[in-house]
Specification:
This protein is mainly alpha-helical and 222 residues long. It has one domain. The chain contains 7 helices and 2 strands; from the N terminus they run ββααααααα. A hairpin with a 2-residue loop joins β1 and β2. α3 packs antiparallel against α7, α4 runs antiparallel to α6 and α4 packs parallel to α7.
Amino acid sequence: MEEMKPLFTIVLGALKIDITSSIMVQWIIIILVAILAKVSTSNLKKVPDKKQSVVEMIFEAIRNLVSENMGEEYIKFVPYVGTLAIFILIMNFTPLIGVKAPTEDLSVAAGLALISFIIVQFNAIKRVGLGHYFKAYTEPVLPLLPLNIVERLVLPVSLSLRLFGNLTAGAVVLGMIYGGMGHMAFLIPIPFHAFFDLFDGSIQMIVFVMLTMMNIKIIAEH
């Protein structure tokens, strides 16, 4: 895996923070999505116009996704699931404009997976209590404690490696196609971009979000 070189470094006393291109792209995406969300949700009307109709369609799609897969009692997770889906999808689509997908950076995929892992555990503790949460690690019998711990820890590893691995593999294949075609690579790779960037990028987002939702529900109800 090629090491990602920092664009610049922020120095805070003895702490040095390297800012890579993946971090910059994420900041840009966050700012643009925040502005778009603010503009799209301002001046809402009882009779929606086209802009509001699109926003409501997106919201209803995410709400239905959460409701159908997790149940009405988990509707409070709509903002997180929606934000996660939109953020990952946009990052996966950035190669379409010639920008390396931040999700090709393992640290980005691992960061997203860690956030989901923490939310899964926090929600379980909140729903069943700290005592029952730790007791679940010893079920159905105490000797399974190590296996149950490993099973929980597999989630962030699986989420991050799946997202990172598939996006990186697609980028490698596209790089080989461009390298092999030389000057003829301006039109022929379009179908490959449609598959690896649009289709596979969408699938990886769906898989990440669905696994996150399922684990939020299953761990809390275990």
